Amino acid sequence: MAKTKPKSLSPRQARDLDIQIGFLEGLIRRDPGYSEALEQLADAYLDRGRVVDGLQIDRRLANLRPADPQVRYNLACSLTLAGQIDIAASELEKAVDLGFRDFQWLSEDPDLALLREQPVFLRIQARIQELSGEST
């Protein structure tokens, strides 16, 4: 589940999202390891523009499920949105090493736009080409 930059929300959408966030926060207070609720909460925080909160949740998920490539990918997205490019690149490399293979989405995901502009992304591209069987 990829994240996107905060959207322009109508007052009703913002209220509905705030209600969803409150509900998910309550679930997580009762069950801190409920990873599906954590994933939804991270997405909702980012949709609401709460990048730091979303990043904190994605870090929790990475601790709960360290070998999950999608969790690592989502963490890379949150880190990129927070401007932590070098750490984001490292997490993206972990995601690829763990089995993330949606290379088309990786090349289009708006959350990773800033990372794709950085020289560090070249090594990730090389790894992807290697895994895809392409020549570098």
Could you explain how this protein is built, in words?
This protein is an all-alpha fold and 136 residues long. The chain has one domain (11-132): Serine Threonine Protein Phosphatase 5, Tetratricopeptide repeat. 71% of the residues lie in helices and 0% in strands. It has eight helices and no strands. Helix 4 runs antiparallel to helix 5 (85-98). It is globular, with a radius of gyration of 16 Å. Residues 1-5 have low confidence and may be disordered.
Structural class: mainly alpha
* CATH fold-level topology: Serine Threonine Protein Phosphatase 5, Tetratricopeptide repeat
Shape field:
globular
Largest sheet: none
Q: Please provide the ordered H/E string of secondary-structure elements.
A: HHHHHHHH
Straight-line N-to-C gap: 29 Å
CATH architecture: Alpha Horseshoe
What value does the average pLDDT take? 91
Query: How many domain regions?
Result: 1
Which features characterize this protein?
single chain; 136 residues; mainly alpha; Serine Threonine Protein Phosphatase 5, Tetratricopeptide repeat; 8 helices; 71% helix; globular; disordered N terminus
